[in-house]
Design goal:
103 residues; mainly beta; Rieske Iron-sulfur Protein; 4-stranded antiparallel sheet; 3-stranded antiparallel sheet; 0% helix; globular
Amino acid sequence: MSHWTLICKLDDIPPLGSRIVRPEKGGDIAIFRTADDEVFALHDKCPHKGGPLSQGLVHGKRVACPLHGWNIELDSGQVVAPDVGHCERFSVKVEQGDVWLAC
């Protein structure tokens, strides 16, 4: 069963940027903020070649991998066609300006 962990203030994540969370197990998690202040969390590893998604470009509700430009949907973790793959997604929420992650 997961519980909610306070990560940071929303303002600590730049618009169209990300922040990395390093849990004890399972690899890094990237928390992304869109231009509309929506927040999403994905495993910080592109399914293609393992590129750090946290260093990619956020555009709309997608992030482009910095290594080869694969686009991943932030709300589902699905890779955008014609590429194929999936990135693990995590539940995240914003309450009163605080960003919470289910882990």
